[in-house]
């Protein structure tokens, strides 16, 4: 991560420990070091914006649109060669 406060707290560290996740930091203000995450975030933002525009919803629905986009992305096959969705791999 890029040293965001939400990733530098005890609850997050405990969650990483619980699941055996090694937490690495990238240099601040260098999104190119975290390309996969940056691209996934862009996809979520684009899906959310599309939902809001398609249904003429106000920006106050942004959080719900982001949650919905995340739900959908985690439950669909994005590549044919993958046999499981991200949700299936995580549970």
TrEMBL record:
One of its GO terms (molecular function) is nucleic acid binding. Coiled coil: none annotated. Residues 1-91 form the Integrase catalytic domain. GO terms for biological process: DNA integration. This is Transposase family protein. It comes from Vibrio vulnificus.
């Amino acid at each position: 991560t890029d040293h965001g406060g939400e990733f530098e707290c005890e609850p997050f560290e405990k969650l990483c420990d619980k699941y055996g996740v090694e937490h690495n930091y990238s240099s601040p203000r260098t999104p190119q070091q975290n390309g996969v995450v940056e691209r996934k975030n862009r996809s979520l933002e684009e899906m959310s914006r599309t939902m809001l525009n398609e249904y003429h919803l106000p920006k106050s629905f942004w959080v719900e649109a982001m949650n919905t986009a995340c739900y959908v992305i985690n439950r669909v096959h994005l590549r044919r060669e993958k046999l499981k969705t991200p949700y299936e791999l995580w549970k």
